[in-house]
Amino acid sequence: MTDTRAVPDVASAGAPPPVPTPASRGVPSGRYRAPRATRREQARLGVLLVAPVMLLVGVFFLFPLLNAVYYAFVDFDGLNSAPPFVGAANFVEIFGDPKVWAALQNNMVWILIGTAAPLAIGLALALLMWGVRRGSVFYRVAFFMPYILPQVAVGVVWGWIYDPIRGWLNRGLEVVGLGSLQTGWLGNADTALYAVLGTAIWATSGFVFVIFLSALRNVDQELVDAARLDRANSLQRLWYVVLPQIMPIFLMVTTITLIGGFSVFDIVFVMTGGGPAGATDVLGTYAYSSAFQLNRISYGTALALVITVLAVPFTIALNRLQRRLSLDGAGA
Amino acid sequence: MSAVATARPSPARNRPSLRRQASRAGRHVLLTLLSIATLFPVVLAVSTALKTSQDVRVNPFGLFSSFSTENLVTAWTVGDFDDYLLNSILLSVPSTVVVVVVSTMAGYTFARLPFPGRSVAFYLVVLGLLVPFFTYMIPLYFQLRSIGLLDSLLGTNLVLATTGLAFGTFFMRAFFSDLPTELEQAARIDGASEWQIFLKIMVPMVGSGMGALAVFTFLQNWNNFLVPLLYQPNGAYRPLTTGLYLFLGGRSIDIGPLAAGTLITILPVVVLFVALQRQVTQGIVSGAVKG
């Protein structure tokens, strides 16, 4: 499965017990205050119930994350038990490393195309299926299937499709008379990134499709019909009537795919491992190979931290925008 | 079509509905073609897995040009995919149970049970949604090595579970937040303890959410190859995905058994998804949208 996770709703985290989520927005959020004895009992149970999650998150996420910060400021090769402190040297090296900039450029391509294409394809499929009843289960299963398949298996099969000699892509090109375009898609440094990206788009579009399909269900059909009566053509109806109504969802999906573009790792790792000659290296795979193949543990970890920090402002900005739009009553 | 239209007394009124019918048919044709195109890689995997090894050598990617189960047998016996399948189950079932139970407990607390420091705790948990796994996977490797949890079922299960807890907690919290407060107040007046309210009243009401989370988490853990790849360095409990990855690296020329291994890896996922497609898609949609 591609790494498209929900974006946390940071703004309402500190709210008191009956947290008004967008879903329950209609209910007036009159604060209910329990008697003191009840509150004490609640606090006691609360601490007990979060203990397991805090323990696991503490040991297997927060502690290694803090360790990552520590690794980034020392020079650790995986063996030395007391690695020397090097200050910001790793970060300085990252900024001067041409391979990092090349990888970042690939991430940018990934962010642009890997966000725009699934959004367009997913929206087009959802609009095509809007209002279709018969066969809708089959179509939904078919379009969503790529998203739930293991990336390793996806990589194997797409590797065959891109096979230079017998692959379906090259054979298809020959059939339609574009034989001159044939190439070893994953072995050619000029095409490899786009080939892997194509596979990722195939996998992600189904996710976007399903989200848009459910968003379209809440679109006010009367407004669309009214626009039709006013002789708005289908593009105008889409732009002025449908899109504004699904805008919060649109931004949410954009956020998810965009962050995915920063943190892309699995599919590149499986299909090309960053090759040929670093042509498909993204920041994630470059960090991995620095750490595990060159034993530059600290350098790889510092780079991974930089990626994380790069993605956070985007997340927060888009999250804010999405919140404001959905609070405007644009129906999430 | 035009004959039908002219036979009717008022063609002007019928034309839109006819046009609509035609456009509906066109939509179905287009949707069907697109579905087939989307599923093509899956079909290709099935077709290649079920060929004779002779046919694989000559024409590996021709669709359904021969039929044999020999590749499946090879992958199963020589390729160790029988062990991998068992290990996949041993790694995804316990970790999924942990995620669902622990997230339900935590989600309830973050929605309903205030205590000092709760919002800090919540931030720390959902921080996991912002930080990619590769940011901390390297320190985690050395940490697991020093506490002896590499190559163990326990260690890999706990790591897999933890990667799902941020989403799970976030997801279950949204379900508990949506529940009305009247029920719990009534139960409290009847003298129910907070623990009873949680277990007997609240948990049964989020059953659908727990189900969706279970399916989603199971798929996620089943599909994960990086966690077992890193933290099972000697392959003591290597699951299907990691097995397939290493098989791909070692003998990518053996297309037949590779295809069979791919089929064995995706088959449980496909079956589970087709059987529970509503829960899977709804779980993912509400998980993504609810925040």
Write a brief caption for the model:
The complex is a heterodimer of chains A (332) and B (291). Chain A is mainly α. Chain A has helices spanning 36-72, 89-96, 98-129, 136-148, 151-161, 168-175, 192-216, 221-229, 234-245, 247-263, 266-271, 283-292, 297-327.
Number of helices of chain B: 15
| Uncertain segments of chain A | 1-30
Please indicate the percent range of residues of chain A in DSSP E strands (runs of 2 or more). Answer: under 5%
**Chain pair with largest interface:** A-B, 118 and 113 residues
Distance between the termini of chain A: 25 Å
| Overall pLDDT level of chain A | 83
Tell me what the structure shows.
The complex is a heterodimer of chains A (332) and B (291). Chain A is built from 13 helices and no strands. Helices cover 66% and strands 0% of the residues of chain A. Chain A has a single domain, classed as MetI-like (MetI-like fold, Orthogonal Bundle), CATH 1.10.3720.10. In chain A, 42% of the residues are buried. Chain A has 332 residues and is mainly alpha-helical. With 291 residues, chain B is an all-alpha fold. In chain B, helix 5 (81-112) packs antiparallel against helix 11. The longest helix of chain B is centred in the N-terminal third of the chain and has 39 residues, at 11-49.
Key structural traits:
heterodimer, A: 332 residues, mainly alpha, MetI-like fold, B: 291 residues, disordered N terminus
Topology:
The complex is a heterodimer of chains A (332) and B (291).
Chain A: H1 36-72, H2 89-96, H3 98-129, H4 136-148, H5 151-161, H6 168-175, H7 192-216, H8 221-229, H9 234-245, H10 247-263, H11 266-271, H12 283-292, H13 297-327
Helix pairs in contact in A: 1-13, 2-13, 3-7, 3-10, 4-7, 7-10, 8-9, 10-13, 12-13
Chain B: H1 2-7, H2 11-49, H3 53-58, H4 70-77, H5 81-112, H6 118-126, H7 133-146, H8 153-178, H9 182-189, H10 194-205, H11 207-223, H12 226-231, H13 240-250, H14 255-275, H15 277-289
Helix pairs in contact in B: 2-14, 4-14, 5-8, 5-11, 8-11, 9-10, 11-15, 13-14
